[in-house]
Design a protein that fits this description.
By secondary structure, this protein is an alpha/beta fold. It is built from 18 helices and 14 strands. α1 packs across α7, α12 packs across α13 and α16 packs across α17.
Length: 380
């Protein structure tokens, strides 16, 4: 269906001017996340950018006359076409800071101003781990990526990757096979699946998570889009696991961005004579956490940026809570944010004194609670 026809049938509700301006700015060719930030810092909002004169725009640092001309020439019809297409194709548009926009992503230095989403992002997706690596992975790498994707999914984590050939696809498939959630971050538009042979995988991901991109829905992939995409992969995640990577792999860019964002970085070792393991060994030399099994990942995560809700509806303050058994959960639930006596924990949990005392020791080791004077405990 032509876009103009889509507009006639899909644009039934009015489009707020500020929202249209956000979309209009996102559709500008040549204006990436860094330039977008520079423009917004100077003019305050997308509407302010478009109200500025070409001379004012060109005077901004890193913005030349060519980009200034592009900005002043783009009109509302471009944004309306994109909005209409998204409505017709069930693509959600999330503005940074709006309801549904991932909170973890807002913590990075250069969050996308706009996300195009096919599928659904849920609160539980803030408990996410990225798994990335080589496109030309070995059988060993593909097996490990799929196993880690499945194991982390069973532990309650959403798996984030880039839908690329090799490790990315294996990680997505592992999560899906385990009945978990997974998010694919694209370097193309969400209505232009790349690589095309992953169209069926993309549909499975949409049904059990989401496909997202900061590029307009029909955007073609280009080399520079993938490093930009990688910051979103790491930014959505508590940590990034690199399974296989050569010394020049794009997965190392994701790992570097994760480190710069204050997130954990993990690497899977491999054979010393395998080219696809050289990047992982380099990360390990530089301080990445070695992954021998899934517990090496699970044991590293500290408190969350903000309390979240699991897929089962349980409130979680720390990823370590995902590893608790039934008794541990009951004891933790009986402990308040402020001082709670051990006797109150025994009464509240319905467990014996010996069970509670042993469990308190476990919860303290996992940094979920803290002991206080007077035989009291509190949440950490």
């Amino acid at each position: 269906m032509p876009v103009k026809t889509v507009l006639a049938t899909a644009l039934e509700a009015p489009v707020a001017g500020s929202f249209r301006d956000h979309v209009r700015l996102a559709c500008l060719s040549g204006v990436g996340p860094r330039l977008r930030q520079v423009l917004l810092e100077r003019f305050g909002s997308p509407a302010g950018v478009f109200a500025a004169s070409p001379h004012e725009i060109a005077s901004v640092d890193r913005i030349g006359k060519k980009i200034a001309a592009l900005i002043t020439q783009v009109d509302d019809s471009t944004a309306d076409e994109v909005i209409g297409l998204c409505r017709q194709q069930a693509v959600d548009i999330l503005v940074a800071g709006s309801a549904g926009y991932p909170g973890l992503l807002l913590q990075i230095p250069d969050p996308p101003g706009l996300l195009f989403v096919r599928g659904k992002l849920l609160p539980c997706d803030s408990l996410a781990v990225a798994i990335v690596g080589a496109r030309h992975a070995t059988a060993y790498g593909l097996k490990i990526a799929e196993q880690l994707g499945a194991s982390l999914s069973r532990a309650g984590y959403t798996i984030v990757s880039g839908l690329a050939r090799g490790i990315d696809a294996a990680a997505h498939r592992g999560a899906l096979a385990a009945g978990g959630r997974t998010i694919a971050v694209l370097g193309s538009g969400v209505l232009n699946i790349y690589p095309p042979e992953h169209a069926d995988l993309a549909e499975d991901i949409i049904g059990n998570g989401a496909m997202i991109s900061e590029a307009p829905p029909l955007a073609e992939p280009y080399p520079g889009a993938f490093p930009q995409r990688n910051r979103i992969v790491s930014g959505l995640s508590l940590g990034t696991v690199v399974v296989q990577a050569s010394e020049r792999s794009g997965a190392l860019i994701t790992a570097r961005m994760a480190s710069e964002q204050g997130r954990e970085v993990f690497a899977v070792p491999g054979a010393i004579d395998c080219r696809m393991s050289q990047g992982c060994h380099q990360l390990l030399r530089d301080g990445a956490k070695l992954v021998g099994n899934v517990d090496d990942i699970l044991d590293e995560f500290g408190p969350l940026f903000a309390t979240t809700t699991t897929a089962e509806g349980r409130t979680v303050r720390s990823p370590a809570e995902l590893q608790l058994g039934e008794v541990e959960r009951q004891v933790l639930d009986a402990i308040g944010q402020e001082s709670t006596t051990v006797d109150e924990v025994i009464d509240g949990s319905g467990r014996t004194a010996s069970q509670v005392l042993a469990t308190i020791g476990v919860l303290e080791m996992r940094r979920l609670i803290r002991r206080l004077p007077g035989n009291r405990v509190a949440l950490a």
